[in-house]
């Protein structure tokens, strides 16, 4: 049996679990990634990993570290060094959360295209050989179209349009966000300088979704979010021959976003497969794949092995 220690680092939380064959330990939850001037602060996350590993009855055979922002907000090779130094393991795998989400959704390593829609939005399509195609994942300032952070930001904009007296703003969003965030004059600093801005913006997405049935601006935001997410997935599925498209992420639990996404997926002709698991499930599956000696070639910056 291969003992695998899997880690999934997201914008709003970090999850750690072990697996050994069909047995699996309880998932530990911790704070997610914080972004500073130097990108994601990986060393700040390692004590959780080290502490969890120390509680195992034996050292893990494989550690798989899945992380959002690996390709844009970190140096993947440095992350591999950090993780390898934090836990004694025979093999260490560092991968983007998109790769782990794809493997988790499909339940195994095979060609596919996955959209991960949560705090951010990123799509990865690959055959795990010569084709690796990423879409979006550019962060809440430049992209992450349709993501939780994107919805939150659009909600702020609609609220401020009403505050400025424009007819396409939303009084309901202004009231709701003011209750949550306080004086609108404090919003620019929170969005532009806050270390946890993506997570805080994404936390507004459920409020926007709740207003969608009665507020035209909120409904339009959720509708556009669903369409943008579907477009991103369709572009990826077209890049890999025989790719199975799927979608994961808590954002798709919002009814208004999910309905718009499903409508757009149908119009684009995608045959969406149900997701079998999460990015943490994918990290553990990758670990089993590697631990059992099956082929898996490194492909920086998406997938690194030691």
TrEMBL record:
Stored Pfam families: BcrAD_BadFG (PF01869)
GO molecular function: kinase activity
Matching SUPFAM superfamilies: Actin-like ATPase domain
Keywords: Kinase, Transferase
Annotated ranges, domain ATPase BadF/BadG/BcrA/BcrD type: 5-265
Official protein name in the record: N-acetylglucosamine kinase-like BadF-type ATPase
Organism: Oryzihumus leptocrescens
């Amino acid at each position: 049996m291969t003992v695998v220690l899997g880690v999934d680092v997201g914008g709003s939380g970090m999850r750690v679990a072990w697996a050994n064959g069909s047995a699996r330990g309880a998932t530990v939850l911790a704070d997610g990634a914080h972004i500073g001037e130097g990108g994601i602060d990986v060393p700040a996350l390692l004590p959780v990993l080290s502490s969890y590993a120390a509680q195992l009855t034996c050292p893990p055979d494989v550690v798989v570290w899945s992380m959002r922002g690996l390709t844009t907000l970190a140096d993947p090779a440095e992350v591999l060094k950090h993780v390898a130094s934090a836990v004694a393991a025979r093999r260490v795998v560092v991968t983007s959360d998109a790769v782990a989400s794809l493997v988790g959704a499909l339940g195994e390593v095979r060609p596919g295209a996955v959209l991960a829609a949560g705090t951010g939005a990123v799509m990865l399509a690959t055959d795990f050989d010569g084709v690796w195609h990423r879409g979006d994942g550019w962060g809440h300032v430049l992209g992450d179209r349709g993501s939780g952070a994107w919805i939150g930001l659009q909600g702020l904009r609609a609220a401020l349009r009403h505050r400025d007296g424009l007819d396409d703003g939303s009084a309901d969003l202004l009231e709701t966000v003011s209750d949550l965030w306080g004086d609108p004059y404090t919003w620019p600093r929170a969005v532009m300088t806050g270390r946890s801005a993506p997570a805080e913006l994404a936390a507004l997405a459920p409020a926007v979704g709740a207003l969608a049935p009665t507020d035209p601006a909120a409904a339009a935001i959720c509708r556009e979010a669903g369409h943008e997410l579907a477009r991103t997935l369709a572009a990826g599925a077209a890049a890999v021959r025989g790719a199975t498209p799927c979608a994961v992420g808590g954002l798709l639990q919002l009814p208004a976003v999910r309905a718009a996404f499903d409508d757009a997926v149908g119009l684009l002709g995608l045959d969406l497969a149900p997701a079998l698991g999460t990015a943490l499930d994918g990290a553990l599956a990758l670990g089993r794949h590697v631990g059992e000696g099956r082929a898996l070639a490194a492909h920086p910056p998406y997938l690194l092995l030691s």
